[in-house]
Amino acid sequence: MNEVTNSRKTLVCDDDKSIQQMMATMLKRAGFSVESCSEGSEALQRLRDVDYDLVVLDLMMPGVDGFAVLNYLAENKPRRLKRVIVTTAVSSSMLSGIPAGICHIMPKPFDMNEFIKQAELCAEDTLTRSRRLKLSPAPA
Questions:
Q1: Is pLDDT at 136 greater than 70 in this prediction?
Q2: Sheet holding 9-13, edge to edge
Q3: CA distance 130 to 19
Q4: What is the DSSP pairing of strand 104-107 with strand 33-37?
Q5: What is the per-residue burial (b if ≥16 Cβ within 10 Å, else e) of 67-86?
Q6: Which of 25, 27, 81 is CA-nearest to residue 51?
Q7: What SS3 class is residue 56?
């Protein structure tokens, strides 16, 4: 694991404890530093205090839902939206309430390998991305 990956502070918020634990475990194995919560109100508090490199957010939670958390980010920390993966089992018609600019939407159930791939991409900072692009071989 490299230093950049290990420094990626992540918040996983899902009211389904088994899904939350599975995502946290997979992210930790991929080198992420993970904090978890089960309620949107707790996610809001943490997002006020910490600038996470990645936020994995379930939309449908009791009380404060993921839509409210996304709206908070859109109004207060819009640049952070590009670091959000939304996980959801809602129909595509309900997704119209998601603010523009989030990194990725993963319909449940999802493939864990794809989840980690998207987490890596969403958490990748601008400097790392520009270095990777410069090091990539030019197309033939």
A1: no
A2: 33-37, 9-13, 54-58, 84-88, 104-107
A3: 33
A4: unpaired
A5: bbbbebbbeeeeebbebbbb
A6: 81
A7: strand
Cα separation, 63 vs 72, whole angstroms: 15
- What's the pLDDT tens digit per position in 27-53? 999 999 999 999 999 999 999 999 999
Cis peptide leading into residue 109 (ω within 30°): yes
**95 contacts 88 by C-beta, under 8 angstroms:** yes
Helices (H) and strands (E) in the chain, counts: 6, 5
Helix axes 40-49 and 66-76, enclosed angle (nearest 10): 20
User: For the chain, how big is the Rg over CA atoms in Å?
Assistant: 15
Report whether 98 contacts 112 (CB < 8 A): no
Which residues lie below 8 Å from residue 51, measured CB to CB, with a gap of 6+?
A: 77, 80
With tokens 């998207």, the residue in question is 118
Beta carbons of 43 and 62 less than 8 angstroms apart: no
Report the DSSP beta bridge partners of residue 57: 13, 86
Residue with tokens 């996610």: 43
